[in-house]
Amino acid sequence: xxxxxxxxxxxxxxxxxxxxxxxxxxxxxxxxxxxxxxxxxxxxxxxxxxxxxxxxxxxxxxxxxxxxxxxxxxxxxxxxxxxxxxxxxxxxxxxxxxxxxxxxxxxxxxxxxxxxxxxxxxxxxxxxxxxxxxxxxxxxxxxxxxxxxxxxxxxxxxxxxxxxxxxxxxxxxxxxxxxxxxxxxxxxxxxxxxxxxxxxxxxxxxxxxxxxxxxxxxxxxxxxxxxxxxxxxxxxxxxxxxxxxxxxxxxxxxxxxxxxxxxxxxxxxxxxxxxxxxxxxxxxxxx
Length: 287
Ligand code: IPD
Ligand code: CA
Ligand code: CA
Known about the structure:
Elements: H1 3-26, E1 32-35, E2 42-44, H2 45-61, E3 66-69, E4 81-89, H3 91-96, E5 102-109, E6 112-119, E7 126-130, E8 135-137, E9 140-142, E10 154-157, H4 163-176, E11 182-184, H5 189-197, E12 203-206, H6 211-223, E13 226-229, E14 241-245, H7 246-258, H8 266-269
Parallel strand pairs: 3-4, 10-11, 10-12
Antiparallel strand pairs: 1-2, 4-5, 5-6, 6-7, 7-8, 8-9, 12-14, 13-14
Residues 47, 70, 86, 88-89, 91 line the site of one calcium ion.
């Protein structure tokens, strides 16, 4: 078996086990343990338990690998492999009992994402991809929608937890909304990207994504036939992630430019957040 497939197999078993922890956590009273970028950017005990399990399973199986998780201390490895985990993507949905959240895990080799899994433990759906081998939902290959008309496109998006950023996002969205079929804010970036991969959304646009939001879902979307990038040839980054079928991407891109998505780089709005990291690359401080 190739290394990439081996990594996928380990990711898949691990994410299913973590998903069971998350699903079981949903049936108990959920307490908010901490907040991050704003009082509504929450962490629960279940986020922490899921990440602990993922880190333990991965590092037990592959002790030389590095690990980056949303909720924990990063582990610097000595191999070329770094794992990127979001223990619950869609924590606010999780808290409210909206069944749109997922465990997301990706493996990068030499800085390139080669395997990714996004698993919704409530629906039981598991999206997977290995670089160069296409994307799957369960055992079925998936592909992006055939939409080529941006005015007919159903676009997924999300908003930052910070009020000052949202104020600006609302203005951008007010310009975009009348120009597309409709916009969905489903609450899990990883699943949004998988929905682009499987044609449930025609496209996706969001600012402020972190590596763990994008790593697995971004690979799954691109393996299903999407282009995942920023504006003007930039890589997908914290500034902006756009995902759309190859045949729709340029039209969506031009509409985003026309409606002002290129006008205010994230650096200007997030002076406290430090440098912008290319999503497929590393955070400045990670192993
Ligand atoms: C969030 C979700 C949401 C997106 C936010 C993410 P979290 O992740 O993916 O859809 O809009 O940007 O931070 O906090 O639930 O892991
Ligand atoms: Ca997330
Ligand atoms: Ca999370």
